[in-house]
Amino acid sequence: MRILTIVLLTVVLSAPARADVIDRILATVGGALILQSDAVAAARLGFVELPAQGDRLQFTLDRLIERRLMLIEVDRYAPPEPPRPLLDERMQQIDQRIGSGERLDAILRETGYTVEQLRLYVRDDLRIEGYVQQRFGTAYRPTDEEVVAHYRSHEGEFTKDGKVLPFEAVRDLARSSLVAERQTAAVREWMAGLRRRTEVNVLYLGR
């Protein structure tokens, strides 16, 4: 019903009497809508690191689909609410990144977001981060042999001034790099599973 209502509104608002489209549906994920205004807001507020080239709207939409899939899973397990001081800090960081309160207000007006909606968005981001860290952050503890193998196969990461640093000097860095690599792979596999069992309809056809 919500999808039908928005489609009808879009048709009405884009009729010949007023040709500008106010908003449009880019995708649905598990019945939830992702609108163009959501993608614009995510990009303008710095929630998505945009690529230098390519279809930026498509890239942003892909990130928002992934975020929605993760949020559906997070809501199933209802993790603890993020601490209020951390939420306040993230909100302040957004304001500082944008440049000023006035510029932030302008972006919110342009995208149809309210400060409360922005705060809820940040709160959900923190919930996702907490869940991912709890599920994947401490599950893998590499052996010394695995760390050495990672160091040898990623020498570029441990090279300075054209010379590969001794293993003993970068042991902890190599361990952290390996853990991060495995965590990224685990999250990617998890995301693929979420997408397989969730109905995702992409309506944006690209440029």
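Second entry:
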Amino acid sequence: IQGSVTDYSLISYFARLNYDYKNRYFAQATFRTDGQSSLAADKRWGNFPGISFGWRPVEESFWKTFPELNKLRDLTE
């Protein structure tokens, strides 16, 4: 029986940044990079960025002017 042992390595880095403005508007940015030793040198690293945004309308003044919306707000608390 013939065989061989090959060692490979994998390394990853991850970063995340969160931002909150007045507890109403939110942003998040993420970045991940992965390196795999078994791939060709020019294809060894992969980068995976991401970004997201959010809004909490229950904190806006117009939300309080609609009784139906206030009922929804009560459900979130």
